[in-house]
């Protein structure tokens, strides 16, 4: 899929990316006033599609964007993008902004049409539950300085972008974040889990973190399997630093094992046995969602 031949969806039509144009008055451009999703597709099979679309709808409801599209409408767009862009491994990006007005005014205009954009991009092979093959992640940590509505998957991502850049500048893959009470929230583009004494622990859902679909599916899969104990509770950064294992999760990464935090080894500095078990279960069951 050469990028300039990429076929994208914009406001009801499919077209080459080079022909996709939006107004500079679009509120997505001026205010970051929009909601987005990224859904992974492996060889034409979408993972967690209904869950992703529900989260996008929740986001639109939260910010008052009205759009008449059903899950099936979105699925048709996804299938069409997959057919037109090859059946490899694709991330499907969906974006709804409030639309373009004739003036720049903060209040939501009543009578504009939302801008709907979707495109597909190549993603790596699905993570294989093999300690010797999996990519080992290094992360930095810093205080979470984003806004207080992190449960909304908003296109206003500057806070996340700046935190990601901190890690990038430090030569690591991600930046994990903690609030003013020294409690773990999430990472700039992932949710975070720790393992201590074989218990898998992640922060509870609230306004400090995105309700990740990978997080949701992983918790569900682990609870149904029952081998590992699972907890959703507040985690202090002291616990994170003393964890046996540290994972970051997202739709494009599955469960990514972290071996180094702020230049120090996590646990014994190697990919852990609990990761191996969790990723095995996740790989076996993720297509059921
Ligand atoms: C801030 C943030 N947290 C968590 C996630 C993980 O969410 P999901 O598992 O739905 O991809 C993402 C994904 O992009 C994210 O941007």
UniProtKB/TrEMBL annotation:
It is an enzyme of class 4 (lyase). It holds the Pfam family Aminotran_4. The keyword Cytoplasm does not apply. InterPro entries: Aminotrans_IV (IPR001544), Aminotrans_IV_CS (IPR018300), Aminotransferase-like (IPR036038), BCAT-like_C (IPR043132), BCAT-like_N (IPR043131), Class-IV_PLP-Dep_Aminotrnsfr (IPR050571). Its EC number is 4.1.3.38. Keywords: Aminotransferase, Folate biosynthesis, Pyridoxal phosphate, Transferase. One of its GO terms (cellular component) is cytosol. GO terms for molecular function: 4-amino-4-deoxychorismate lyase activity; transaminase activity. Its cofactor is pyridoxal 5'-phosphate. One of its GO terms (biological process) is amino acid biosynthetic process. This is Aminodeoxychorismate lyase. It comes from the Bacteria. Belongs to the class-IV pyridoxal-phosphate-dependent aminotransferase family. Involved in the biosynthesis of p-aminobenzoate (PABA), a precursor of tetrahydrofolate. Converts 4-amino-4-deoxychorismate into 4-aminobenzoate (PABA) and pyruvate.
């Amino acid at each position: 899929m050469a990028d300039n031949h990429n076929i994208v969806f914009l406001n009801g039509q499919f077209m080459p990316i080079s022909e996709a144009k939006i107004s500079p008055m679009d509120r997505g451009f001026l205010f970051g006033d929009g909601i987005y999703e990224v859904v992974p597709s492996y060889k034409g099979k979408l993972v967690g599609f209904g869950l992703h679309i529900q989260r996008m709808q929740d986001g639109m409801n939260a910010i008052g964007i009205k759009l008449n599209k059903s899950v099936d409408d979105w699925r048709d767009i996804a299938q069409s993008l997959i057919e037109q862009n090859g059946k490899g491994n694709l991330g499907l990006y969906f974006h709804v902004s409030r639309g373009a007005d004739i003036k720049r005014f903060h209040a939501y205009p009543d009578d504009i049409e939302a801008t709907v954009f979707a495109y597909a991009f190549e993603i790596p092979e699905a993570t294989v539950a093999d300690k010797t093959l999996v990519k080992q992640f290094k992360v930095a940590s810093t205080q979470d300085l984003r806004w207080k509505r992190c449960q909304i998957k908003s296109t206003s991502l500057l806070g996340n972008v700046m935190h990601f850049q901190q890690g990038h500048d430090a030569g690591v893959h991600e930046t994990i974040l903690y609030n003013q009470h020294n409690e773990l929230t999430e990472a700039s583009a992932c949710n975070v889990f720790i393992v201590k004494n074989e218990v898998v622990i992640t922060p509870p859902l609230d306004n400090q973190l995105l309700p990740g679909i990978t997080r949701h599916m992983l918790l569900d899969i682990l609870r149904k399997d029952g081998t590992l104990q699972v907890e959703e509770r507040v985690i202090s950064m002291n616990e994170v630093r003393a964890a046996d294992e540290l994972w970051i999760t997202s739709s494009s990464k599955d469960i990514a094992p972290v071996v180094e935090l702020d230049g120090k080894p996590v646990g014994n500095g190697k990919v852990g046995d609990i990761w191996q078990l969790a990723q095995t279960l996740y790989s076996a069951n993720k297509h059921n969602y």
